[in-house]
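Worked example

This section walks through a single chain of length 421. The input is the sequence exactly as stored; nothing has been trimmed or padded.
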Amino acid sequence: MKSVLQVIGSITGILFFTASVVFLWARSGQLADEKLVQTKTYAAPPASPDRDTFRVMTYNLGHLAGTTDDGTVDRPDSLFSTNMDQAVDIIRRANPDIVGLQNVDFSAARSGYVHQLDTIATRLGFASAAQAVNWNKQYVPFSHGRPVVQFGRMVSGQGVLSRYPVRRHARRVLARPPQSFWRDAFYPNRLVQVTVISIGGWPLVVMNVHFEALDTATREEQARTVNALYKRLAQQGFPILLLGNFNGLMPTVELATPSDDDTIELLLKGTELRPALSPEETYITGNSSLGTYPADNPRRKLDYIFYRPQSIIQTNAETWCGGTPQSKNASGSPAAHQPQNRSTPTAVKGPTRSQDGGVPISTVEASRPHRDSVANASGNALPSDHCAVTMTFLLPRPKDMLPKKRIPGDKLPSLDSLMSP
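Given that input, the structure is written out below as tokens.
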């Protein structure tokens, strides 16, 4: 009997030791710490800065899983290939100069080991990118608590694509939600990613954010952190775009539906920031043609572009859920709402740009069928469960003074010092 117990004890010890080794290996990172923040350049040359009108986009790619739930569907690689084509088509038609991406995979197993940031950049001719990793694991063994679907190797995060050079890049890890030890070991970080982009020597700061989705208290703490960081950056005097997936609603004018979520209010407190879509259109708690989530029936606006009117002048804003965008022109008048999935020709109203170089025009005829209106192999018609938001804006710059106002890279303030707590 004693020998049997010894054998059982030995087996138990071996299993425990093996499980501990596997656990420590799985939760360890694929990338070294110095690789978690990278600035990249591609073959495409930088765009000409000799214009005043530019366009920015924010888009939560949802790692191109479409509108399927992470924990219930084991998706084939062909789905991600199809969704990549659709996402590239959406971004191509929107024609942004700068794109802030959230939930983008960098050669992760769950999306077929495709580096989604590099793929989009090269296919659409972006000159540079900033990559910030927020999920770096050797192996993620669950999806939403379901052992059936394994994520495997995980390298994912946020990225900024730019047709202009990226001169500075840093990331700040935000507060994590309270949860069990085992779940926390494999849970992604939430980040604010800060890039300084040079437009003809003139710095434009882009803050790319992805807040916590499930825990309100944590999300509010993250909003306080980003608010403080924005104020420190704003003191440098540079124009700033704050964009991303904030996972919170704008506060309503009249609280018909009381909410305990103060995320956006805390984010904007004391900043003079405004949303790309007017307050009247974004103060929503229910149905809205300008919602961004879920993409197949957008009822909530979780994705925003914020700007300060004193330094950036908005001329147009649009949401892109897979079909022709819902747009708003500079006067604040939205175009009539259209279904998000369709293949009928549609005119997009409001100041926008031709495909060849950003010349402002009043109307663009989008009179061609939209490829993303056709369901893919899994019956999923959209590349992401979030809609994208674009904003066209004027960036006033005293061109006659640019030779004196251009700021050499070594004269820019250190982001590391500004982003420290």
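What to look for: Confidence is low (pLDDT under 50) at residues 282-288, 331-380, 400-405.
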